[in-house]
């Protein structure tokens, strides 16, 4: 009959396989009735040593990949529009607006890594534009209040 066990045990030549126990005719009838395994019912169901090792040596793990939600990526769109209209220092507000629009496009294409990178760039240009424009406005107010002719 066909040998039972895993492929590693079946693929061995007959000389290397462990000897199967010899059964008396009376016990063969008992095995035919109570055996629930498929294949040769005259042999007792001996678990393969490879299957037993797999059960004891492997530790089953479940890997769950969590992708960030596209709504969590901030595009700084309103801040970019404000900088473009009111504080467009050396066109930095325009560049920030361009990167904000790129973030929206990449979010629609589900390119989250690219959207995050462009969002960081848009934030950087918005911060720079806001800071430099605010600094220039403060300087203008200082020079209007205290003109250079007083010094």
Automatic annotation (TrEMBL):
Q: Does the record carry Transcription regulation as a key word? A: no
Subcellular localization: Membrane
Q: Pfam families under this entry? A: CD225
Q: Where would you find the membrane-spanning parts of this chain?
A: 76-101, 122-144
Q: Which GO terms describe its cellular component?
A: plasma membrane
Swiss-Prot/TrEMBL keywords: Membrane, Transmembrane, Transmembrane helix
Q: Which family does it belong to?
A: Belongs to the CD225/Dispanin family.
Q: What is this protein called?
A: IFM10 protein
Q: Which organism is it from?
A: Nothocercus julius
């Amino acid at each position: 009959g066909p040998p039972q066990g895993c492929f590693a045990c079946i693929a061995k030549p007959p000389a290397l396989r462990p000897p199967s126990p010899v059964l008396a005719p009376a016990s063969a009838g008992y095995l035919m009735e109570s055996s629930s395994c498929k294949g040769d019912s005259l042999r007792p169901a001996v678990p393969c040593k490879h299957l037993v090792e797999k059960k004891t040596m492997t530790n089953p793990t479940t890997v769950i990949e969590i992708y960030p939600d596209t709504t969590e990526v901030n595009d700084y769109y309103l801040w970019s529009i404000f900088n473009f209209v009111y504080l467009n220092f050396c066109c930095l507000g325009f560049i920030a607006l361009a990167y904000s629009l790129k973030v929206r496009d990449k979010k629609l294409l589900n390119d989250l890594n690219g959207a995050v990178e462009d969002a960081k760039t848009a934030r950087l240009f918005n911060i720079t534009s806001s800071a430099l424009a605010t600094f220039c406005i403060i300087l203008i107010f200082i020079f209007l209040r205290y003109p250079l002719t007083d010094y």
